[in-house]
Amino acid sequence: MDYGLLIDGAAVDTEEHLSVDAPATGDVLGTVASGTAAQTADAIEAARRAAREWRYSDPSERSAPLTAVADRIEDEADEIAELLSRETGKCLATAEGEVAETVAQFRFYAGVTDKVRGDTVPTPSNRFNYTKRVPYGVTAHIVPWNYPLLLGSRSIAAALATGNTVVAKAPSQAPLTTMWYGEFLVEEFPDGVVNLLSGPGSEVGGELSDNANVDAISFTGSTMVGQHVLESAAKHIIPVDVELGGKAPAIVLPDADPKNAAVGVATGIFSNTGQNCVAQSRLIVHEDIKEEVVDEIVAQAEAITLGPGTDPETDMGAVISEDALEDMLNYIEVGKKEGATLLTGGKRPDDPELADGNFLEPTVFDDVTNDMRIAQEEIFGPVLSVITVSSVEEAIELANDSNFALAASLWTGSLDATRYADRLDHGLVAVNTFPVSMPQSPWGGNKRSGIGREGGLEGVEAFTTVNSVVVEHGDMGAGYR
């Protein structure tokens, strides 16, 4: 399996190619072209040429290809999900869910194309003032590796639905499935409207964030890289929508169902091997219910079966890379040195059959205080920190005491749940469930977790700006008096 760059409706080869390895086995899955800054500039120019007509396209001209892409992904869903599982390490069921939601997102935005509305503004009787939402033009999309289809399609579909053209960078560590459905996009839309690139972030990503011919940028990834994107875009006053890191708290109050909360928290931190921007990595649990909840989470963690994501017996797959695994192991050592108590996990599994893969046992720390590094820094792996509190007030205070504010969950049987949720300074608050994504719902964080919202009708706002038109019905007098 080998993919070239997709520029202006054609496949473009490069001198160098990047190898894509399976995190669970080390096997080579395929290669992708390694694009350069110059080729990225070519793609931006192609998108700019196409934007001159595409911005004036009828809603039906945008809806039809979005629906066609959804149909084609759905037709090949099983094959795409299997490759997604193999290139990211995630369990097949998780990959299947991601493919299904990707289809749903394309269908949602296919239905949005004729619902992008303006407004009228009250004025004196001699004037008529109306507003309209118009596309930015050329939009750049830097796609993450952890949910490449779900997170990539969220911004790409919204941009296309609102009349923008697209230049997207596939994630270097898991580019194959993005390039797979990228071919659908390129074939269904007019030449130049969609351009898909693969290659190093320093080349492709750097050009996308620093090219003055880009009109808007969507970035999902680490806070550090996001800062660089914002700094580069600022030089050209390019609007940027960024979804960055997270350190999601899961608050469990005394009136919660302990078993249900334990299942939800365990799922929220161990699904996708904890490589999730909304992973519930901080369990803030009331002392009255702590023992029952933590014992159940530990039992669930120790019952998890590790293995390749494509194995139906696997509960948790591999970490994306050896470097990422080393970072997680380093954080585990930091936690021990800081005085946290390791309850379970904390190392690579002993199973010799997993020796070639990047596996880490599900890990739970107790006796964590909120000022410890493992409670404040994003580990991006299956590592849970347990923090004990004695009141609702303390729980909310600690939940908000973080530089990150992407998502939080709250587990309670109280009718005060919505009042508590309103006091949590997080972009998404889930009550009696872990944070979930839906095509019709906005997504994004506060503080250092990001700027802006994508998904839902908020996705329309992310990729359009408002123009105001004023019509004068009377004769002009001496306007300077």
Task: Describe this structure in a few short sentences.
Homotetramer. The chain has 481 residues and is of the alpha/beta class.
Question: What features would you describe in this structure?
Answer:
The protein has a seven-stranded mixed sheet, sandwiched between helices. Strands 10-9-8-11-12-22 form a six-stranded mixed sheet, with helices on both faces. The N and C termini lie far apart (72 Å). Helix 1 crosses helix 7 (201-210) and helix 9 crosses helix 10. It folds into two domains: 2-244 and 449-468, Aldehyde Dehydrogenase, Chain A, domain 1 (3-Layer(aba) Sandwich), CATH 3.40.605; 249-431, Aldehyde Dehydrogenase, Chain A, domain 2 (3-Layer(aba) Sandwich), CATH 3.40.309. With 481 residues, the chain is α/β, with parallel strands linked by helices. Helix 12 (373-376) links the parallel strand 16 and strand 17. It is globular, with a radius of gyration of 24 Å. It is built from 15 helices and 23 strands.
